[in-house]
Amino acid sequence: MSDVIVQIYGIRNVDDARMVIDFGAKHIGVSYGHIFHTPGQLSCEQAKEIFENVQPHAVRVGLTCAEDIEEITEDLREALPDVLHLSGDIEKITPEQVKELKSRFPNLKIMQAIPVLADTSLSEQKALTYVKQYEDVADFFLVDTKDPNADDIGATGLVHDRKIDRAIVESTNVKCIIAGGLDEINVSDAIKIAKPYGVDSFTSTNYSDERANTLRCKDPDKVQAFIEASRNA
């Protein structure tokens, strides 16, 4: 049995949040903000309702693709998660600015997304450089596949070489959660290769039809299958 934690992203309502927690998810991820940046993003009011109705059963993770710390600060004052997931362009928020955010919200933990390109060797990308730059201010790294044509990191459904995940995990003491096209079929092998702190799912635990674009986007059967496969790795 694997002891990795499971993080389920794309939570858009309290019922889905409670459902994934009941199946065994330890982290629930909510994308939110008062300025729209990405599809599926909730308002601060919607995020706050979820955050206030899942304690003490889960770690509440709030994702932002914003790159201005004043904008992020305003969002955090409206709806404060346990962990802030920085998933915008990593070049746009410096480690010093992350430190400033943590000084404004002393109990807030930071999850910094680390971009990994598909079909690209580790030596040809900057993942390990980013790890070294941000490990003094990050409590978690979310290692995710980046679309080279997008500024934000993740939510692509694309996979990358899990040996890169393993290299990142071995390079740092920061807890690493791996993502990028993980599903109930490939998550076991990913865990065995990378040996991460946790695994993350967004696209593969959504419904496969038009419900994926609604507030009730999580498919209970897929969520349960993903969590069970992760546990059994």
What attributes does this structure have?
233 residues, alpha/beta
Q: What is the molecular shape?
A: globular
**What is the number of domains?**
1
Distance between the termini: 6 Å
The helix count comes to 8
Quick overview:
The protein is α/β, with parallel strands linked by helices. The chain is 33% helix and 18% strand. The protein is built from eight helices and eight strands, in the order E-H-E-H-E-H-E-H-E-H-E-H-E-H-E-H.
Structure in words:
The protein is of the alpha/beta class. Helices cover 33% and strands 18% of the residues. The chain is built from eight helices and eight strands. It has helices spanning 14-23, 44-52, 69-78, 95-104, 127-134, 162-171, 187-194, 220-231; strands spanning 5-8, 27-31, 59-64, 83-86, 109-116, 140-145, 175-178, 198-201.
